[in-house]
Amino acid sequence: MITRRATLIGVPLAFAVTGEARAAVSGMAYASNEKDNTVSIIDLAQMKAVKTVPTGQRPRGMELTSDGKRLLVCEGDSNRIDIFDTTSWKVIGAIDTPDPEYAALKKPQNNPLFVSNENNALVTAWNIDNQKMLWQMPTGVEPEGMAVSPDGALICNTTETTSMAQFFEVGSGKNLANVLVPPRPRWAAFTRDGAEVWVSSELGGTVTVIDTKSFKILDTIRFVVEGLRSTFIQPVGISITDDNKLAFVCLGPANRVAVVSVPEHKVVSYVVTGSKKFDATVKKYLLVGERPWHGTLTPDDKYLLTANGLSNDVSVIDVANLRVINTVPVGQQPWMVLISPSST
Amino acid sequence: MQKVQDSLHFLQSMEGAAQGLAIAAYRSNLSALTEAGEVQAMVTNQSSAENSAHAKSGPGRRAVLGAFAAAVGSATVHPAAAQTTPASSTPTLTIGYLHWSHDVQTISYIFTPAPNNGRAGAEVAIVDNNTTGRFMHQNFALETVEVRTDQDPVAALNALIGKGIRFVVTDLPAADVVKLADAGAAHGVTIFNAGAGEDALREEDCRGNVIHTAPSFNMLTDGLAQYLIWKRWPRWVLVYGEHPQDLLLAAAYRRSAKIFGAHLVAERQYKGKAGSRETDTGLIELQEQLPVFTQNLPDHEVLVCADTQSVFAAYLPYRTWDARPVAGSAGLIPTSWDPNSLEFAGRQMQDRFVAYAHRFMTALDMNAWVAVRMLGTAASYAQSLDPEKIMTFMRGPDFQLGAYRGLSLSVREWNGQVRQAIILSDSGRCVVSMSPQPGFLHERTVLDTLGTDKPETTCKLTTAQKE
Q1: Residues 93-152 of A with CB under 8 A from B
Q2: What is the CATH number of domain B218-335?
Q3: Are the CB atoms for B338 and B315 separated by under 8 Å?
Q4: Which of A115, A140, A288, B376 could cross-link with B129 by S-S, CB 3.0 to 4.6 Å?
């Protein structure tokens, strides 16, 4: 409605759309730019990057403490995870660990931090306050995705090359189960009720739904986009809404985000992302080189932000209308975007 | 002592995993992890792993794996994979490797093949297979036999068959691959051709029990052709040598030019034997000879060369009469792997390989790695080490192998060729591009724009051969 009114009174459309977003969101988002070795700080009210923070080499995975005060950045090629103060943007601590691809925090305790050490085929657990290692466990080849269950009892790690979802007990690191999934699993996400974990397989083109009690595979979700070769559908990031109804799956080179009904394990829609030439009047999004890697929902679940690795921008998706409403340029090859918990 | 405690803790928790909580099909068999002496071995290696934690691609992972093997011990020791031998109750699939032991002299000294060229790739894949296998209750081992040019490869194969081996990877020449396939067929042996690029091996001489992990000449030349066309460099001069393989490779370039719309404006054959690269003042002679060899050519954008034996191609760049780039066997080279390929998690593969072999990973290493990983992957999905079940899965529609080149690898059912992307390498310095190129489309998968496609194949696999 706002869009139509703005058009009628002759305000440039792009501005009108920005205005819509401006009215709806405030707070900060952080995008890790793996090529630039920076994190872009995005002011959501302005929908633009307002600051660029230098990091170590190849920042990919990130985690925010539950109070939003510390941002942990995995710097794989520097063999380090830097802990940034999100006010001063100074490094206030660092965890030295080989080749950290991604790490997940147990929240709201903000400890431990579970790290995928990709080259060493290890999962390590850390206390982020004193940066001491608590335990380490061997995994399959190239551990990557990591998720902590909502009750904080177990973690799920995915091993890219050996195609397993591996479950470990949070406290001891005890290996609970290893479930074979389709090739190149990249990401794990627990449903909000903790009953299921969803694992995306980049080459398999699937999301595997695993029961967290029996560790049995409940379902395999496949994605079909008309006019697109199945080989270009490479699911990676998964974001699930707080009400446990919708999951958003970034499909990489398919340049789309799949919208999946969580209770039904069924795709309900696809959203095209990353269009630099966004034009709401034609409701058509031109495909440019994009590759959305990972998405994050705003705390109120009204918007989804995706980091588009090939078009160097962040897409803002209106969840209610399942439309891309804005595109924010960031640094080179953004991999992940997180949103401050105080954002509204 | 913190490290010692961590390690003890590690062992206890691994044991716990085996005793109770793992689900049935994927249970780890780690019950032999507790004896005191073995714990000591684990502690020593674990500490060294941590000490090296800051070194990128340090021996950390290997040390941990090594420690794992030391801890569990085993009654059977397989030559190349002793460091990952698990408890003796774990079923083991031993894969044979017939390695061609021969001297190769390359013009570029730094590309002289290592004695374990190819074999090291298979060995790293065994470690990778076992990293999964220890969670899947499967173990993999490699038995390598060196075969000299004057030795009978079939005798070597029969020795492996006698030990119960049903999968054999080889980098022996094309003629030997056919002999091995025919000799192994009666015993249910599948041969993995990691070395020979001859298209005839996939076409008129095809065999139902051969999987080709080496890209064919046609795939390589198509990969280069697509890039040159993408670059709008359609006019080529083709220069080829005298070796029979050079003639086959030249034919592949002619075919690719026709398919992708390039024009071969001239062809020349280089006649000359490989000389010593160490001759004093040889360089002066070369910079006088090669301009003459490439003089008076019609207008062209690229000089494409086919030199499979490293006789002359590497001498062409910067010495041609016209200032034109060189591609093919020198300059811009199509290949299945390059040690600079870091995309698609290639960095992890390179680091893992260098840590193991203390040298860079070649295309032959990659082709052998692919063969052994195909077996490991098919075995874990088939949940069986039974050769028939493994091959059924590998040839089936669900088989995919991630091999650090973006799109996953799978088997062309019509001739056993493994479909794969082709890297275009700046002579081993940088990756320039990877084919298929944007805009080259195919009804099945863009990977089938490379090499002989199903409608063109002359390979006729009988039902018996397919099995």
Answers
A1: 96-99, 118-122, 133, 135-142
A2: 3.40.50.2300
A3: no
A4: B376
